[in-house]
Amino acid sequence: MRHVRVNVGIVGAGPAGLALANVLRQHGISTIVVEKDSRETVETTPRAGLIEQRTVTFLERAELATGLLTNAMRTGSCTFIHQGEAFSVPYADLAEGRKHYIYPQQFLVRDLIAIHGGAGGDILFSHEVTQIDGGDATEPATMVARSTKGAESVEIRCDFIAAADGSDSIAHRAVPESIRMPLRHQHPFRWLALLADVPPFVPEIVYGMHPIHGAAQMPRTATVSRFYLQIQAGETVNDWNDDRIWAALRDVLVVKGHPVTTGTITEKAIIGRSDHVSRTMQHGRIFLLGDAAHTISLAGGKGMNLAVADAEVLGAAMARYYDRDDEQPLENYTRERQPKIWKAVLFSHWLINLLHSTAGDAAASAFSNELRLATIRELRSQGPVARMFAEEYAGE
Ligand SMILES: Cc1cc2nc3c(=O)[nH]c(=O)nc-3n(C[C@H](O)[C@H](O)[C@H](O)COP(=O)(O)OP(=O)(O)OC[C@H]3O[C@@H](n4cnc5c(N)ncnc54)[C@H](O)[C@@H]3O)c2cc1C
Q1: Do 207 and 341 have their domain in common?
Q2: Domain FAD-binding, which positions (predicted)?
Q3: 245 lines ligand 1 (CB under 6 A)
Q4: Is 180 in a helix, a strand, or coil?
Q5: Which of 52, 62, 146, 200 would suit a FRET pair with 229, their CA atoms being 20 to 30 Å apart?
Q6: Cα 31 to averaged position of ligand 1 atoms, centre (Å)
Q7: Closest residue (by CA) to atom 11 of ligand 1?
Q8: Is 302 in the pocket of ligand 1 (CB under 6 A)?
């Protein structure tokens, strides 16, 4: 077994782990990022794409945003469709000009890998972390990684472990539930997440409200859109062939006089079984960040933005520890992040309730439909509800 000693061992080369690695490198703090997938896989796997102004500002300050600033589309309004009528909410105008940048997550991951690797940062691809120990703050932390391609194993000793390895984090095994205190919410339905070779309908996000299938169309590039379609819990990808998908999307996203453009569906997955939030994001020398600490629904596009913000706060706290021997910011990490995380969860649940109907009796459906109509009137009037939507959607 090979042995490595670094200041911080980072599990996972997603947006959270890579943003943290870059920030720590800039402070002269040694790290190793261990990623179970190959470099090619992480650089080509599509997921998020909606990046908030706040995230861009942080990345720009950290000199990590060149690719994003050069290539991302910007959008500051979104369209809602209800019963064939479309209306646009110019949320950037209502939120002091804060826009979204549309940039596929895999491109950001590719940029962060190139910058970190180019500056001498160490990333071990195709190695799965199989064990972490770090709950006892009086002992150094350790993690063991095994090659997914051969027999090689590496033991990494470090001061801290940053678990940025997504929703099935290995830290969930190392940090007892009694300490993490996770809270979970089961969604009553699922989402079919699709990528299709379809140019965006308009250069902004389109949300469709419907009594059975809430849906959305999001630009990814000039020729590719991501679609979400609400489906029932228990349904599988096999229940949804392309014809059925396009029929449902046509039903929700149709606007009078504008047929929905169809195209080749290149990816189909079912997502969104449940949200979880760990109420404690630190145990001894182990810190959780990104989806490892909180996995929330896609509505509102908050997950990747929260992941990068966790990295920003944890990176600054670790820098303070190494630069000034000050442990306080590390101890405050959970306390500082929890209100921001719950604010994002709150908004995402508000948006889900607006966009999606749940099965219920006729009276309950009529009641929720009136609530939806009231919200639509408020959004169209650009009054206080529209301003709340804009502030939360655009992010801080
Ligand atoms: C279809 C879809 C669309 C989305 N759209 C948006 C959006 O528009 N805006 C937004 O903000 N969010 C969005 N999200 C959520 C966003 O993608 C996640 O919140 C984000 O990826 C979290 O980043 P992360 O770095 O915490 O984790 P991840 O991106 O999941 O990265 C974790 C990494 O850890 C690796 N790993 C896991 N286990 C191990 C192990 N044991 N050893 C080594 N490596 C390991 C994984 O291979 C992975 O590369 C979307 C998600 C999906 C699925």
Answers
A1: no
A2: 6-347
A3: no
A4: helix
A5: 52
A6: 20
A7: 304
A8: yes
